[in-house]
Amino acid sequence: MTTSAIKPTTDSVSGLLQDIAIIGRDKTRGGYSRPVFSTAETDLRDWFLEQAGRRGLDVRTDRNGIIWAWWDTSARTRRDAVVTGSHLDSVPGGGEYDGPLGVASALVAVDILKARGLRPRRPLAIAVFPEEEGSRFGVACLGSRLLTGELDPDKARRLQDQDGNTFADVAVANGQDPRFIGADYKTLQQLGVFVELHVEQGRGLVDLNQPVAIGSSILGHGRWKLSISGQGNHAGTTLMADRKDPMIAAAKIMVSIRDTARKYRDARATVGRLQPVPGGTNVIASRVDLWIDVRHPDDSVTAALIEAIRLNAQVTASEEGCRSSLTMESLSPTVHFDGGLRDRLKELLPGAPVLDTGAGHDAGVLSSHIPTAMLFVRNPTGISHSPDELVEDWDAEAGAMALADSLAGLLGGPPAGPPAGPPAGSRSSG
Ligand code: HGY
Ligand code: MN
Ligand code: MN
After folding, report:
1. Do residues 233 and 357 share a domain?
2. How far is the centre of ligand 3, averaged over its atoms, from the C-alpha of 33 (Å)?
3. pTM of the entire predicted model
């Protein structure tokens, strides 16, 4: 894959990421914990506002908490805009690149286009979407789902974090008026296409020895909450035969979730979060809540798999004298990115492979409203949602260059520059 000769004139992607590397470090889990509306995440939003302001972009935060940084500062009405960007929030103990790489690359891509003297024939914006991970309020891509009307605003307002704070209360505490969240067709009408750059959350590019890929599809995925109720009691005075312990039921159910998922090719089912109530060392829990993440390319298989999990949980819970109830928190069908936009990117990034992803993104949510596409940047470990996520500096710059070439082509700018840079697959130092 060739990239243009012009180097970023000001910041580099790795330099911008270095600026924020201190924000939201998680000393206990390792990596980063930047939940929406946390100090870390609001500090990152402030950092983005400052960076966008430095570039003379017209910045505004909409009623759903999405930040839009527009290249053209004068336009009153904007239509058919080319939008790029990503998210700044993280999973607990997440990596450095999941989200911020796309935001930093968008800033550097703007630098590159300005350095080329591009005069966009369409509006261009960088967007930063809140709560993409759904780590605090449980619904992934909360901001883009509100924007597109996919998530009912009343349901959003009632969402609670682990401490029982509602989204509405936390939004008010952070200066966002929850009364006005919800579908925003005026903003949607301004948008033409959305191209999101993201760290690859897998080893496809490593195995292909390429720095950048174009996205083809996003695996369908859903999240369910399973509550198992038993009899809370004293750890010392309750004989083993007299127990209705939801922790035991939960343990057996989690193993059966894994075993059930193994029966469906390409299926993934994960329990990454479990909460005993009340959660005391010397207390038999009265209830256990656990969250299940299920993914499969075929939405009907996802449905069959979660139904099998639900039935099995009922039987296993009753064997332990407990009861179980399953509630769906979010569900996204498999998304195939717009073929025309994907093929246009293939023209603009000759030689870039096309890869699917098992990870969800705002680009997936927006795809039901406007043509969307993704670019993935090589991750030598292939690991994500972990401190072990990695992008080599050189690949980060190659990603920004590829994004700039893509945006230039979509904005009607000059074609990509002459081939340059070290041979594909070379690594930066360190
Ligand atoms: O969960 C996901 O796939 C994404 O990282 N939010
Ligand atoms: Mn992400
Ligand atoms: Mn993620």
Report:
1. no
2. 12
3. 0.92
